[in-house]
Amino acid sequence: MSNVDEYYTEILRLVKQAGSIVREKIYQHKDVLTKSCDVDLVTEWDQKVEKLLIDGISSRYPDHRFIGEESTSSGQKIELTNAPTWIIDPIDGTMNFVHGLPYICISVALLINKITEIGIVYNPILEQLFTARKGQGAFLNGAPIHVSNEKELHKALVMLETGTSRDPEKLKIVLQNITLLLPHVHGIRSFGAAALNMCMVALGGVDASIEFGIHAWDVAAGDLIVREAGGVSIDPAGGPFDVMSRRTLCASSMELAQQLSKILIQYYPVRD
Ligand code: LIP
Prior knowledge:
Layout (H helix, E strand, L loop, with lengths): L2 H23 L6 E3 L6 E3 H17 L4 E4 L16 E8 L1 H6 L5 E8 L2 E9 L4 E6 L4 E3 L2 E2 L12 E4 L7 H14 L5 E3 L4 H10 L4 E5 L3 H13 L3 E3 L12 E5 L2 H10 L9
Helix pairs in contact: 1-2, 5-6
Pathway: Polyol metabolism; myo-inositol biosynthesis; myo-inositol from D-glucose 6-phosphate: step 2/2
GO molecular function: inositol monophosphate 1-phosphatase activity; metal ion binding
Keywords: Hydrolase, Magnesium, Metal-binding
């Protein structure tokens, strides 16, 4: 058993344990706090799930590092080094969780030397476990998954999130992008959890997913899952994907990704 095999077994065990908490709490009353603005929400369950995952890994692997949404929310700059680093979103789609909309997931990626080795996205409400290991394909509940292979923009179903920022410049660009894209595609969807949106591309349920303003923890696992499912994950301006850039475009084919990137008005948030 390689080290990564062992890490994979351990994180799957912890993610399933965390999933039981999320499943139990989603339809119960929650105290809700806000972070960067009135619609950037957090609950005690986001914090507890993140602690469970970090404590579980660090007790076995004390030299591993973490970039977790809730442990970084106090605003300190995050740093990605070559050390084995777990990038964790304990509840991606927190607003959905607060409302009881079952489009939420736990998203965890392991990067070693800045290369993603493991990606796990788990929706414990709908029992959808998306997994990928570098070079070994992508799976939903153990069965292989593949992107749609769609290449034509006018046949594409596209996920485009508005995000939680209410910065007027960002809002203007998001609305312009919806107006620019809509006449050229089959449709636009916005379900509120970037990691799951990327898994929907991996599954072939949508053909592309685009968002400006997400963080490393929203996209690190989804990036590997999409690529292992035969899709592409790039920067929305057409260059290589950068997990710290807070920008994502993934698609069923490079042809489709490049067509989308040519239409989009670009937005560059402050990097992670
Ligand atoms: C959410 C993302 C979503 C985005 C929200 C938020 P969180 O992550 O998954 O795509 O539109 O602004 O960033 O905060 O629920 O983990």
